[in-house]
Amino acid sequence: MNVLIVYAHPEPKSLNGALKDFAVRRLEAAGHAVQVSDLYAMKWKALVDAGDVVGGPAGDRFDPVGDSRRAYANDLQSADIVREQDKLRWADTVIFQFPMWWFSMPAIMKGWVERVYAFGFGYGVGEHSDVRWGDRYGEGTLAGKRAMLVVTAGGWASHYGPRGVNGAIDDLLFPIQHGILYYPGFDVLPPLVVYRAERMDDARFSAVRDEFGERLDTLAQTAPIPFRSQNGGDYDIPAMTLKADVAPGLSGFAAHLDVADA
């Protein structure tokens, strides 16, 4: 299996750094091919701008969507974007590893998504009509691949529980897992979340490492989160709302999980 780790932490000697290094060793020892996009070490440019298009914008102003479409279709993307897209094509499974900062991923990783998920690659794919609204949410360029989040958080697990003050972890991660991963087609595996990351002694690190190792060993067998596919019949098109007989009385993030198939 080909595994890409997209990694965002500025300190190699951090907990995240240790877990990333462990993942590479574990996966390679099992015979997998591994690539790592270490965004801070790469000094990844996080800002979307006219420099993403070889030759500059088509008109007298930069159009993030229109110029992204033109650049992708005409091989005019900057070289760093092309390299990351090629890694995604190569990968069977992608692990996104990061510390949770201000209830989301670090800005550098969000910038990776915004630049690498170009129009025609990450979005704007497929037929838009009265029967389909693009190849997305279960379909798209990355369909058939798997993805998983590995997240460290400073708070306690209870802080991220169903009644925790920070909000339920599944809700906090929904925009990433459903939006950034499932939208372009990934099958999304349940995340590995490490709580109280600043309170890590040797014994606890050993337990976390063992849990992570088990998750790495079963990447190909783990059942993905049962998100509803957009074009699978559950949504009215083009309104893109759940049909009245689907999850009646349920709204919010949970309504987009097909728990009957879980």
From TrEMBL:
Any Pfam family: Flavodoxin_2
Domain of life assignment: Bacteria
Flavodoxin-like fold domain: residues covered: 1-215
Statement: the UniProt record of this protein carries the keyword Oxidoreductase: yes
Keywords in alphabetical order: Oxidoreductase
GO-annotated cellular components: cytosol
InterPro entries membership: Flavodoxin_fold (IPR003680), Flavoprotein-like_sf (IPR029039), NAD(P)H_dehydrogenase_qn (IPR051545)
Record-stated family: Belongs to the NAD(P)H dehydrogenase (quinone) family.
Record protein name field: Flavodoxin family protein
GO molecular function, a single term: NAD(P)H dehydrogenase (quinone) activity
Classification of source organism: Bacteria, Pseudomonadati, Pseudomonadota, Betaproteobacteria, Burkholderiales
Keyword field contains Nucleotide-binding: no
